């Protein structure tokens, strides 16, 4: 197989980032580099990481001013040497065989872009349920509902190139998946939960109003859709969100259950 570049932005991440880093170190697949970019946190986390981990695969960088997660991720991407690009936020975790299973799935099926199901936990680490994913999505389907969790996505830069996240304040990952799906027809999902997403009370997945606002911004400002076209896709986004909230069993059957 080939090297994986793992992108991890840091911002005042001392409470959880060591667990995230350990989940990378514990991967059964070991040909990776972990690129940490501190977004001008102004704390000692990056210094502690440098002191704690004597591993040449862990690369650390620091931005001069706070610029947001998209800028931090894009800076990490500019330093990446791996063929496969993966994402893990500093408060999330991977299962030990995440990379091994996902890369095997991609290589054996000649897949350029993939994602997996994942588990949800709260800030205390308590289980909150599982999030299933459809077998595949294309650009038009993803516009209606983003089923790809950032902590699960991997793409092949040898085939798709290095693709930057649009530098918007929220929903950068959704916007990136859309960019990638303009380069490849489908992204393919693995139904096994290979990652663990930590839910915070102030996170965008918790605040549905904020999620809706930034989803609209992706349609209008990033994709450049007309008001009419944006309304069409936003209607689907809202209806599927209602189904997830009110009828989770139906949502799982329809493949629209996600964070």
From TrEMBL:
Which Pfam families does this chain map to? Glycos_transf_2
User: What's one GO MF term for it?
Assistant: hexosyltransferase activity
User: Would I find Nucleotidyltransferase among this entry's keywords?
Assistant: no
Q: Which domain of life is it from?
A: Bacteria
- Positions of the Glycosyltransferase 2-like domain: 5-128
Q: Which UniProt keywords apply?
A: Transferase
Record's protein name: Glycosyltransferase involved in cell wall bisynthesis
What species is given as this protein's source? Modicisalibacter xianhensis
């Amino acid at each position: 197989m080939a090297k994986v570049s793992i992108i991890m932005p840091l911002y005042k991440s001392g409470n959880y980032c060591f667990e995230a880093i350990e989940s990378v170190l514990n991967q059964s697949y070991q040909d990776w580099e972990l690129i940490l970019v501190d977004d001008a946190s102004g704390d000692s986390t990056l210094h502690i990481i440098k002191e704690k981990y004597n591993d040449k695969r862990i690369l650390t960088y620091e931005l001069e001013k706070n610029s947001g997660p998209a800028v931090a991720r894009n800076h990490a991407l500019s330093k990446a040497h791996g063929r496969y690009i993966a994402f893990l936020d500093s408060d999330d975790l991977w299962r030990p065989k995440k990379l091994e299973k996902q890369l095997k799935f991609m290589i054996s099926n000649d897949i350029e872009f993939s994602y997996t199901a994942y588990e949800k936990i709260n800030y205390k680490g308590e289980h909150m349920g599982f999030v299933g994913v459809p077998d595949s999505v294309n650009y038009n389907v993803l516009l209606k509902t983003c089923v790809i969790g950032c902590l699960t996505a991997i793409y092949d830069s040898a085939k798709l190139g290095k693709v930057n996240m649009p530098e918007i304040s929220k929903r950068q990952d959704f916007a990136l998946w859309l960019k990638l799906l303009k380069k490849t027809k489908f992204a393919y999902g693995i139904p096994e939960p290979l990652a663990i997403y930590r839910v915070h009370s102030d996170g965008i997945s918790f605040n549905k109003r904020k999620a809706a606002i930034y989803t609209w911004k992706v349609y209008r400002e990033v994709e450049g859709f007309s008001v009419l076209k944006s309304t069409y896709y936003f209607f689907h986004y809202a209806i599927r969100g209602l189904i997830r909230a009110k009828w989770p069993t139906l949502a799982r059957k329809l493949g629209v259950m996600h964070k």
